[in-house]
Amino acid sequence: MEAYDGFLDIIEIKRPEGNLKFWMDKKDHNNLVPSTDLIKAVTQASRYIYEIEREANSLKFLERVDFIKTIKPRCVLIFGRSNDWTKEHKEAYRILNSEYHNLSILTYDYVLMRAKRILNI
């Protein structure tokens, strides 16, 4: 999709009703750990970024994306729910997201919260 700044970005959506887990059931060294489901989704999103970077200069690709500028594509991964998270979950989420430079992970609840704030609901 074309992002607000006119460049090509990727939106990857994993439906919340698929029983995909955000966090592992058990902590590791007292840390919340991303689930295998989330790691698979991040890997898939990273692969999409890679493929777009590989094809960004081909005429066929440019025609397919209607000549949207393709420079350093980013991906927004919408994954899981967070409406029942504790403070610890929210802190772990913030730390996890800070480690990615071209990927943002949002939960459905965060997307809804942002939309409500934008619309002043």
Descriptive report:
The chain has one domain. The protein is 40% helix and 12% strand. The chain is built from 4 helices and 3 strands, in the order βααβαβα. It starts with 9 loop residues before the first strand and ends with a helix.
Q: Gyration radius, to the nearest Å?
A: 16 Å
Give the integer mean of the pLDDT values. Answer: 89
Give the strand tally. 3
- Using the alpha-carbon principal axes, give the shape: globular
Return residue spans where pLDDT drops below 50 for at least 5 consecutive residues.
none
Count of alpha and pi helical runs:
4
Total of domains: 1
The description of the largest β-sheet is:
3 strands, parallel
Strand order, sheet with most strands:
1-2-3
Query: What is the oligomer described by this structure?
Result: single chain
The N- to C-terminal Cα distance equals 26 Å
Give the SSE string.
EHHEHEH
> Could you tell me the strand content as a percent range?
5-15%
